[in-house]
Amino acid sequence: MKYDVTVIGSGPGGYVAAIRAAQLGLKTAIIERYNSLGGTCLNVGCIPSKALLDSSEHYHNAKEKFSLHGIEVKGLKVNMPQMIRRKDEVVGETVKGLDFLMKKNKIDVLRGHGSFLSPTRIQIAAADGATSEIETDKVIIATGSKPITPPAFNYDKKRVITSTEALNIADVPKRMVIIGGGVIGLELGSVYARLGTKIDVVEYLDRIIPGMDGDCSKELMRALKKLGMEFHLRHAVTTVTATAKAVKVEVQKRDSEEKFTIDADYCLVAIGRRPYTDGLGLDKAGIQPDDKGRIPVDTHLETSIKGIYAIGDVVQGAMLAHKAEEEGVFVAETIAGQKPHIDYNLIPGVVYTWPEVAAVGRTEEQLKEEGIPYKSGKFPFKALGRARASTDTEGMVKVLSHKDTDEILGVHIVGPRAADMIAEAVALMEFRASAEDAARMSHAHPTYTEAFKEAALAATANRSIHM
Questions:
Q1: Which residue in 250, 232, 233 sits closest to 241, CA to CA?
Q2: Where does a domain end: 271, 297, 323?
Q3: Do 216 and 305 fall within a single domain?
């Protein structure tokens, strides 16, 4: 077979790239080594984790908040197998949707492990051992990433686990150690903390979610501590030893000889992810990854070999599903001769704990480091009527704008529905709006987004009405 475009990998970046290429009239194939489409995000990442996050939040609210609303519940308990079944059903329905989209857009789905034989020839090795080959004019590498699992942690997929295995624990653990205070560890940690698990987070740096604004780190840690999560900042895990039913985690304080041991049911390794290009045959295509395993690309996301592109987790930048999607569209349109554009500064980041954390643009720390003059306006959710009505009063909205021009430079939210609220900030910043523009927009009352308006008012000239 001969194709105009072949996409290797069917995660959010890959399948979106394939759909856009097909929409533009290009004969398109997508190669996927696993039984289901969707990659990590749909199968063992974004979608299943959000399903468990929602389920655990319902339980937590029933246990802790229903009585405040005058709702009495007796005999409340966690049915973990049903929670897992529901999560699997959500994943199954989402994957079926992808199968439909492939057929609708007349995209050939080639099952098996794809690898380069040359820059324009790809071999597909099926699960039964059979192999086939295709020719293609263009290739989009979208093979995603895998969790980093250092040998010292003795990852066994049973007691020492990653996010993949954490989605299928049959019983609520009594205690779990999480290595890493980043997004993945905190999201899954909050799932089990809400179900009653004692969670210990070991983070080498001096704060959690270190890539986000410092105020977001403080607000989120304060909220998670109320769930009973314990944080060991400036600490490192030296070794993890597992038995059939437990783990022993050795922890050492950073820049010190002080050590201690944590005994738990599970140890979740969540220290980041690495580009997944294993067995891809990059050398046969003439591509050399960098020292972190990433595929170097130019401003058009084209590799050093003409006609081969790479997107998503295999290239530099944040490992985010929506970033990969934007890059998939970008490359498909580039191949079709269009002039697409991505502003990486305006790709939002989200932590789906509760309260949620969402941010776009520069952090306050970045503005200070870059010497950019700025103004800051903050508004707490506890001062918002809508938040008080729903008992979601933790967190705040922070708006950073340029001191001279008032252009919005960054928006940082910790609070209810922050993941949805951040889109308003992205839209305004895409059009280079000022804080005053945001402050003068009419926001429906009562809504959570009024907190954004109030923070913009505070940034404009300390004009917040309700603080």
A1: 250
A2: 271
A3: no
Considering the domain boundaries, does residue 92 fall inside one?
Answer: yes
248 sits in the region (left: phi over 0; alpha: psi -120 to 50; else beta) called: beta
Q: What does the alpha-carbon distance between residue 262 and residue 431 come to, in Å, rounded to a whole number?
A: 50
CATH label of the domain that carries residue 362: 3.30.390.30
- Bridge partners (DSSP) of residue 181 are none
My answer on whether 395 and 435 are in the same domain is yes
Residue 283 and residue 367 in one domain: no
Q: Are residues 12 and 50 in the same domain?
A: yes
Same domain, 116 and 135: yes
Single out the residue in 271, 289, 323 at which a domain terminates.
271
Domain contains 350: no
Q: For the whole model, what pTM was predicted? A: 0.96
Long-range contact list for 321-327, CB < 8 A, 24+ apart? 321/11, 321/12, 321/13, 321/41, 321/45, 321/46, 322/12, 322/347, 322/348, 323/347, 324/11, 324/12, 324/13, 324/14, 324/16, 324/142, 324/144, 325/12, 325/13, 325/16, 327/13, 327/17, 327/301
- How many structural domains is the chain composed of? 3
Provide the 3-class DSSP secondary structure of residue 244: coil
User: Are 399 and 454 a contacting pair, CB within 8 Å?
Assistant: no
Same domain for 192 and 85? no
Catalytic residues: 445
How many residues are listed for the chain in this entry?
467
Give the ranges where 111-235 is alpha helix by DSSP (H).
Answer: 163-166, 183-195, 214-226
Calpha distance 289→291 (Å, rounded): 7
Residue 188 lies in a domain: yes
Q: Does one domain contain both 381 and 398?
A: yes
254 falls within a domain: yes
Measure the CA–CA gap between 344 and 317, rounded to whole angstroms: 9
Structural domain that includes position 72: 2-146+274-344
Cα–chain center distance at 197 = 23
For residues 139 and 38, state if they share a domain: yes
The one-digit pLDDT tens for each residue of the chain (467 residues) are 899 999 999 999 999 999 999 999 999 999 999 999 999 999 999 999 999 999 999 999 999 999 999 999 999 999 999 999 999 999 999 999 999 999 999 999 999 999 999 999 999 999 999 999 999 999 999 999 999 999 999 999 999 999 999 999 999 999 999 999 999 999 999 999 999 999 999 999 999 999 999 999 999 999 999 999 999 999 999 999 999 999 999 999 999 999 999 999 999 999 999 999 999 999 999 999 999 999 999 999 999 999 999 999 999 999 999 999 999 999 999 999 999 999 999 999 999 999 999 999 999 999 999 999 999 999 999 999 999 999 999 999 999 999 999 999 999 999 999 999 999 999 999 999 999 999 999 999 999 999 999 999 999 988 888 87
